[in-house]
Design brief:
Elements (H helix, E strand, L loop, with lengths): L9 H30 L10 H10 L1 H31 L3 H35 L2 H15 L4 H17 L4 H16 L6 H25 L6
Helix pairs in contact: 1-3, 1-8, 3-4, 4-5, 4-6, 6-7, 7-8
Length: 224
């Protein structure tokens, strides 16, 4: 009786890594679009009250839902692809580390996707009943699980950086930038440091993802 090799071929793994590289670059593209939209057509920095923000969201409801869907739901789905690709890359060197990284990556993806879904549904419900209270509750839940605390994403980043340094998976400069981004993400859990560390996390990850993406797309062999 013949047996079937259950392990993926090296060529298949390389294709998966390249898909992961493309995913990493797409994450940066999504972040960039989201930041630009937030700073321009969806800028609410001048609005002081929840009622004003609710009125603004109502006036731009379709655009807000599109923005949230892109920055949270689609982002989270693509993050899963990158997480699995990195798992395949690291599991060759350290099975426990790869599973740990995958766990944090999937938890982060779940939180981000759930945050986007909650905001979109909550906004539509608040608009249906013309309720500022529902909108305020929606914003609170949305921010709590997907915006105002990036500790899970920070830990995920730091674990990948640790594995990258130990097994020389990425160029050193990619690891250094990832280290800064990861520390920034963890420090967002401190309320007084949030405003200064969230941009370190976001901008650092954008550059880090570009570095990871280019490296994975150029990678020729599994090892090295």
């Amino acid at each position: 009786m013949s047996t079937t090799n259950k392990f993926p071929k090296e060529g298949d793994i390389m294709k998966q890594l390249k898909l992961g590289g493309l995913s990493a670059i797409l994450l940066t593209v999504i972040y960039t679009i989201g930041i630009v939209m937030q700073g321009t057509i969806l800028n609410t920095g001048h609005l002081e009250t929840v009622a004003e923000r609710f009125a603004f969201a109502g006036q731009h409801a379709n655009l807000m839902i599109l923005w949230v869907s892109l920055l949270y739901i689609i982002f989270g789905v693509i993050l899963i692809v990158l997480t699995v690709a990195i798992h395949d890359m690291i599991t060759i060197h350290n099975g426990f580390m790869s599973r740990l990284i995958t766990g944090f990556g999937l938890v982060w993806s779940t939180l981000v996707i759930a945050s986007g879904m909650i905001y979109n549904n909550g906004l539509l419900t608040a608009l249906k009943f013309d309720s500022v209270a529902i909108y305020e509750m929606t914003q609170t839940i949305h921010s709590s699980i997907g915006g105002n605390n990036e500790i899970i994403g920070g830990i995920w980043t730091l674990l990948i950086v640790m594995a990258g340094f130990k097994y020389q998976l990425f160029p050193k400069w990619v690891g250094v930038i990832g280290l800064g981004a990861g520390v920034g993400g963890v420090l967002t859990m401190v309320p007084s440091l949030y405003e200064s560390t969230i941009m370190v996390f976001a901008l650092g990850q954008m550059v880090w993802w570009i570095g990871i993406g280019i490296h994975l797309l150029r990678k020729k062999v599994i090892y090295g």
